[in-house]
Structures are given as structure tokens and as C-alpha cells.
Amino acid sequence: MILDNFLDEFMLNNNQLKTTLLLLVCFISSIGVFGQSDTISHPEEDKRYMIIAGDSIVRESIDLDEVLILKRLHFKNNTDRRRYLILRRKTRKVYPYAKLAAERLTSLNERLGSIKSKRGRKKYTKIVQNYIEDQFAEELKKMTHTEGQILVKLIHRQTGITAFELIKELRSGWRAFWYNTTASLFEISLKEEYDPINNEEDYIIEDILQRSFQNNVLESQPSALDFDFLELTDKWDVL
After folding, report:
1. Contact (CB, 8 A) for 158 and 221
2. Of the candidates 212, 225, 86, 78, which has an alpha carbon nearest to the alpha carbon of residue 157?
3. By its UniProt entry, which InterPro entries does this protein fall under (predicted)?
4. Residue 200 CA: distances (Å) to CA of 87, 144, 194, 235, 238
């Protein structure tokens, strides 16, 4: 009944009817959009309002997920292609352990912040220490020296500190020295840093990670280091 009266009132001429129906359709469409995205458009102000917990918050724009556009891989020869594929297999194998180290370190720091007693902090630290060492000790036995070195670099990528510094922080300087000396027998330096800005192989590893993240082969975790991968892509012409 209300809709019939509404149409009767504006049926003065055909053009006006078309305009009215168009406005009505637009109004109904806007209701549908509002129901789906909880946003209200105000053309006169060129703003968007987000409804959050009952409050309207004005926004100049709508956030979108960042999409990293990667160029197609191009190898100069079969040797470079083989090198990349081997490095990809090794990187994908060890990355989850570097990610785990970063998660445990973050968890440790957060938990320690809530423990007041010195004794409690020491006890909890030892639990995490033993867990990390037990996890990595078993896995390192299964890795080649190349895989072990990539793991050390990725630990630095994910935590912002070297494996040597991590062990030194959790244990003592002597223990870190001992670990580094032992690792050197397998051509692994626990002091090795991840440097895709100046190291070509590290850049290739970063390329592998970014492509693996996009293809959902590896679960993405932000790097603790400060570098721009797109700028590195312009710098390095190896892929």
C-alpha cells in the first residue's frame, strides 16, 4: 500500500517515473551492500563510515590486502635453474623451524613479562631452552650442512638476532661459543646473518620464500629485518 501510494504520487510523466524507479533500485541496492559490508556511503562528503561495535568511524579509504607482484622466473642456463630448485627444496624444508624459533622466542618474552619472581622466570626460561634445543638438536642431525646454514640464516631473518646470540641469551657466552665451535666442524657458523641486500644467495632465498608464501606452500611470517623485497628485485638481476 505504501509503495502504491508512493508510485501514484510521482506518476506525473514517464520520465519522472523512470527516474523515481531508478532511485528506488539504487536505494534497495545500497541496503544490500550495507548488510554485507557494514558500510554507509555519504557521497556529499566523499567519506566511508565503518560500523564497529555500534560506533561510526569515518574513513578516507578502505584497506585492501597487499599483493606482491612477482615476475616470472627466467634462468640463464640449466645450471642456474638446478641451483634454484635445490635451494628451494632446502629452504622450504628448514623455514618452518626458523618460524618456530621466532614464535617460541616471542612467547618466551611475553610470558616472562608476566612472571614477577626471579625464580619463576628462571624456571620458565629453562623449560623453553630445553624445548628449543631438543627440537633443533634432533632436526639438525637430519640436515646437511647446507640446510643447517640456511636454517641459521632464517633464524636471523625471523628473530632479528643470530643463532649464536639467541643461544648466548638463553644460556651463557661459553655455551654459545661451544655451539659455534661444534657447528664449524660441519661448516656451519651460528653467527651467520641473513643479508638479501648484499648477498646474492640470500636474495634468491627471499625470492623462494615470497613465492612459497603466495602459493601457500609455506605459512608467511613477517621478517624481523628491515629490507624491501621489491627494491631488491630491481637491484639483483639473477632470476
Report:
1. yes
2. 225
3. DUF4294 (IPR025636)
4. 12, 21, 11, 10, 8
Question: Alpha-carbon distance 86 to 89, whole Å?
Answer: 5
pLDDT, one tens digit per residue, over 13-34 is: 444 544 444 444 443 344 344 3
- C-beta of residue 186 within 8 angstroms of C-beta of residue 145: yes
Which of 239, 172, 164, 182 minimizes the C-alpha distance to 208?
A: 239
- Is-contact 190 164, C-beta < 8 A? yes
Q: Would you state the cell numbers that stand for residue 239, as one nine-digit string?
A: 632470476
φ/ψ region of 46 (left if φ > 0, alpha if ψ in -120 to 50, else beta) reads: left
Contact 213, 220 (CB under 8 A): yes
The alpha carbon torsion through 203, 204, 205, 210 (nearest 10 deg) reads 90
DSSP H helices in the chain: 2-10, 14-37, 78-114, 118-142, 145-159, 163-170, 173-184, 200-214, 229-235
How far apart CA 26 and CA 144 sit, in angstroms, is 64
At 25, list the grid cell: 533500485
Percent of the chain residues topping a pLDDT of 90:
31
Residues 6 or more apart from 128 whose CB is under 8 A from it?
A: 104, 107, 108, 170
> Three-state SS string across 10-42, please?
HCCCHHHHHHHHHHHHHHHHHHHHHHHHCEEEE
Structure-block grid coordinates of residue 156:
636471523
Q: Taking the CB of residue 189, how many other CB atoms lie within 10 A of it?
A: 16
Q: With H, G, I as helix, E, B as strand and everything else as coil, classify residue 68.
A: coil
Which grid coordinates belong to 118? 626471579
